[in-house]
Structure prediction request, 208 residues.
Amino acid sequence: MRFLVFSASLRDDSLNTRLARLAQQVIEEKGGKVDFADMSEFDVPSYNQDEESNSGHPTGAEELCRRLLANDAFIISSPEYNGSMPGLLKNAIDWVSRFRPQPFNERHALLMSASPSMGGGNKGLWALRMPLEHLGARVFPDMFSLATAHKAFTEDGTIADATLTKRFEDNLVAFMNLVEAAKHYPCMKKAWVEFLGEYPDPAVERVE
Prediction:
């Protein structure tokens, strides 16, 4: 099983990058393969349909699309900015959603966050679920938010608390098992339609 893993932070020594690296370690220990990416690889200018029509997709969007399609699932460790997701992540999602076939559709996703706050950045993950699920991604129900993350890591990058470590690893293993089952034992496929009664006009058509 191949997993795209990346932090949605551009900051050096980001808490979310540490959490993403820890996820990589656990996945590889459990026999999975990780394609670890840096958010800077997916950085794009603000979405503008005129720019898309005139110049096509920017390099960062093409790279994220390629990496999504090359892996069985993806994991994002995202910071929380003012109770929501980072703007650069939403912007990247908006650009990538314009590709056809749309690469988020039916792709399994796990969301994580790390924050110095007591909530661990969890509100940002709820905001992040909305565009991903809107685009047909299968977002894992159990999200992991590491609270007071500035105190949570040991010097070697692991989580100091044994109970939190077990919860983190168990959550990743459950996600890996789901992705494996979906790949090798697929259920009946259905078309993704945002609203079943939506008028089939090319300007708003989102059926795939």
Notes: The longest helix spans residues 162-184. The chain is about 40% helix and 15% strand. The longest strand covers residues 108-114. Helices lie at 15-29, 49-55, 59-70, 87-96, 122-134, 162-184.
